Amino acid sequence: MKEIKVRCLGDEAFRKYGVYQKLTADAEMKNRVIPCGDFYPDLLTLDFGKTTLPTVSCCHVYKQERMVVDFLEYHKYTCEGLVPLDDDVIIYVGVPEMGELRIENLEGFYIPKHTFVKLNPMIVHGGQYPVNEPEAHLICMLPGRTFQNDMVYLRIEEEDKKGVLIM
């Protein structure tokens, strides 16, 4: 299995994959937008295209003995938004190589709870892993029916071709 080192979330390290915003960092949010009191509008924009309406989904994930990467996906035309609600999580992201999904192109990131992560179109990603709790919930924002109309994916069956996230 290929080891994928987990990094702390940082602007420079994550910029090529998308952007993020800690949703409980009031001072930081005040610097990004024109606040209306304690309302911080338009922190991030998500391009969902024009074909379907945005949807809010929930991912319920469980702590694993090992954070094995055996599923990769990307969306050609839309971005994806994730917010861990009740625990910090580990995610993995990367870029396809000429459209091909490869473990070798992945990086792992530690995402604090309440941090909104926007993944750009064509960014490879997959499951999330709770850090401190036995399970976690994440809000996932995508256009409706993305899994039917804009998803390229690969399920990896062979053990030696899988990856493992290392903290």
Automatic annotation (TrEMBL):
GO molecular function list: ureidoglycolate hydrolase activity
Protein name, per record: Ureidoglycolate hydrolase
Alphabetical list of SUPFAM superfamilies matching this protein: RmlC-like cupins
Organism from which the protein derives: Hungatella effluvii
InterPro entries referenced in this protein's UniProt entry, alphabetically: RmlC_Cupin_sf, Ureidoglycolate_lyase_dom_sf
